Amino acid sequence: MSSFIVSDSTLSAAVDGILSLGKDYGSSPGSFLWKQTRTLGAKSSKPADIGKALASLKSSAVAGRYPDSSPDDMGPVPVYRANPHLHSRVQQFKALTCLAYQCAEDPVAGTPPYEALRWLKSALAASIVQALPEYDSAQWDLQEAN
Description:
Blueprint: H1 8-20, H2 22-25, H3 32-40, H4 47-65, H5 89-102, H6 112-130, H7 133-137
């Protein structure tokens, strides 16, 4: 795990990255995004609830890495609001990557919330790539050369 602690601004960008998946996967009850945010620990798909879930993952990871720390050392959990145009989707992906790296050790690694975070990070990467013109021009099937 990294020796730094992911900032609230990075968590905000991660929240926006997760929320951006709604256009690709839907966000209604039962949808991919709805299920993954519940597994993450969010009570709803609202930015504040997703932010709390990500902050909880971060807090658990930091406590695992620095056992003498206390949740109070992390400060209050800010209220996250959607601001999808503040950061590019690539920056949002990088924020999710930073958080996943922060959480890659015990006691968080391998837990259902951590696996949901990794799945959401992968889904955002796929969404970014599929929006590229090069993806649209790539062939679905490559024929064998004679």
